[in-house]
Each structure stands twice: as structure tokens, then as C-alpha cells.
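Before the break, one more example. Copy the sequence into your notebook; we will annotate it together after we see the structure.
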Amino acid sequence: MKGIILAGGAGTRLYPATLVVSKQLLPVYDKPMIYYPLTTLMLAGIREILVIATPLERPRFEALLGDGGDWGVSISYAEQPRPEGLAQAFIIGSDFIADGPVALVLGDNIFYGGGLSAMLQQASEPREGATVFAYQVRHPQAYGVVEFDSDGKAVSIEEKPPQPLSHWAVTGLYFYDNSVVEIARGLKPSPRGELEITDLNNRYLLAGTLRVERLGRGYAWFDTGTHEDLLEAGEFVRTVEMRQGLKIACVEEVAYHMGYIDGDRLLAAARRFGKNDYGRYLESLLG
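Here is what the structure looks like once it is written out:
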């Protein structure tokens, strides 16, 4: 399976902080925001990754991430000139996807929880249809909302409903079979002129091939689209890291534990950062 990180958009809700820099390059505590969705894909066992950014921001992502070789993955790039919907990622990335399955993660989404890697790897196993994740939120009106029947089966997904039928929001992490490309091409723009990911998911739902996995207690999900959300996510990451002495979304650590790089390459990465906290942390992983 291949993976796409959608890091386009203007980030207008974060103005003026994002007037001259992509929001996905802003720090979430001690790491660039894009490290979080990148490591989410890596934890799923995905090593071929496409980053979709605006033409202006693409060189900055390339400067930060390179070709992914330092982490044992392959990173390539594509451009989204205008924000015309999340489902547009599959049209832009159709050549990259080729004839296989694909995962999409939004560049401003953060996931954390025990057993997350196993859940992601299960979702990435080849199968017909799609898998999305739902998370319980206080204010579901801002999201795509899943309605479940009495057996816990998803029966509808509604985008930003004024009267939500549940408190379960669809997160920005999706796994699809290869038919997603043609489905995306067949979508019609919504009234706001975008190819909606909810419309795409509903196609799978109507076909009976959509699985909705609920992220329950013990999991955290952040959509860092506002100043408040960004601050809340940073505080969460800082609290966990300071209390446990473990880092969240440390790309080198994930690459090492997934077997993408060996100890020598991890040590080389540690030396690159010198004697700062990040470098010392990488060194400590080697015992």
C-alpha cells in the first residue's frame, strides 16, 4: 500500500501565523506538524509516500523531508494549485497510486494511542472497499458525522450537519482500494466547489464496502486547524513527552523500530542534531 499526505490549502484559519508558511510546517511542540501524519503512515507499514502541497510550499517540504532516504522510506511530491477538495488528492496522485491500494492522511491530523500501529497495519491489509476511523467529539457539527445503527454498523455519513445524528466524527485518515481513483473522478463538486471526501466515503457506504473503526478511550485525535487546536495539540504532546520521557512522532525512532533503518543510521541521525534534546533522545534509543 502507498500513502498520501495532503498538505495543501492556505491555512486561513491560522492567519496571520500562516501568511508566509504552510500550517503543516508549523511546530507542534518540538516537531514540524507534518512529522505526525508522516509517522502515522510509517506505523501502518507504508514506505512509499506522496506529499501534495501548494506550488509555493512544495520546495519547503522538499527541503525538510527530502526523498525520505534518511528514514528508509521513499517520498515524492505533487502540487495542488487550488484547494478543490480532499478527494482531489486521488486525482492528483493517480499516477503515483497506479493499480494498488492507497491511504490518505491529512497533513494537520495527529493520532496517538496504545495499539495504534497494529490497528493501522490491519487497515492497510489488501481488501475490497475502504476503512475510515471515527472519534467521539463534543461538537460534531464541524466534521463529517457517522450515524450507527443498534448493531454498531455505520448507516450514514453527513458533512457538517446542523443537527448531528451522533457525536462520532470521521477523522482525517482513510484507507482505500484502487477503485478510489475512478470514484474520485466521478464526483461532482459540492456547493462550495470542492470534491468532498464525505461524498466519496458515502459511495463506499452505499456499496456496502465501507468499514468504520471507532477510536475509543485511550486514543487521542487532533485536527490542528485553529489556533486553539494547535495549542491544545502542542500541550498534549508536551505533557506526554515530559511525563513519560518518550517522544511522539519522532520520525527516526519510528523508522528504527519499524526496521526501516539500522542502529548505525539512527546514530548518524542523532549526531546530526548534536547535543540538543532531540539528538540525545535518539542516542538513548540505542541503549
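DSSP finds eleven helices and 13 strands in the chain. The first strand starts at residue 2 and ends at 7. Try to locate both features in your own notes.
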